[in-house]
Fold each of these.
Amino acid sequence: MVDVHYISAGKHYLMAEIVTGSDLRRPDNVPPPLTPGAISGRPQNGVIHRNNLSETTEAPEGHPAWVHITVIVVAVAVIFRLCMIVFTLDT
């Protein structure tokens, strides 16, 4: 953390200058920075503990049923619209 002196402030900005002679320090409650390539919020060992149950963070197999139904409905709507366009151009 750095001690600063505020020069000016507005609705969308804040300008400050570092106070000379102050030492740089990290607050006690701030964790150290992540290593390059690490993802924040994900445990390093790949296991999430919820309510004393351990679950792996692997991707689930397949998609939920509603995704398949949505894809089918959209495909039918597109085919129907294309048929309407083709048949109206013929007449």
Amino acid sequence: MAESTLANNTRDFWSEVRKASSNHNVPVKVIDDVYGDEEISNYFGSKYEDLYSSVSYSHIEMSDVVSTINDRIEKLDMSHFTELTVENVITAVNQVKFGKKN
């Protein structure tokens, strides 16, 4: 592969890359001293369950957060926003300068 690159022969280089990467699809047999497909699957399931249940969740707290957000949305002054129309969008898109991060 290095020879193809040095000789600037891109066709040989990419064929070598495909050969090298396509022949190594052997399934894993052991992970952390756990053997077999089903046991490995259960092992990962247990790890994810531990991960996702490690953060506490309070329904009361979540309800308070939702209420606070809803209260703030209701108090917003939306009078300065204009109606969103197709024409507004076309005008805004036409004002965007190509290549700029507007």
Amino acid sequence: MFLPVLMIGGKCSCFRAKPAHFSGHLPLPRATCEIQGYVYDAKMRSARLARTFWNDPELANRLEKEAAELKRRFNQDFWLADREFFALAIDGDGLLCAT
């Protein structure tokens, strides 16, 4: 499961070939690539803390497994094969946003 986008002042948006529905509604991003990266980094750094300073290898292992699963899912779900790069976001309709 990807971490949802936190909207701060409506500053996060993405565009695609058909950016709006007939109603003029633009679905906001459900998940952005940056947030997935932040979560991955936080899990890996927390795992290092758990193992090195908190003496909790069980927590460290769990966090590393969660980070690996997030990376696998990101690579699978955000990849735009026809363009050979990663999408910037997944919008509220579940569609990939290239730009």
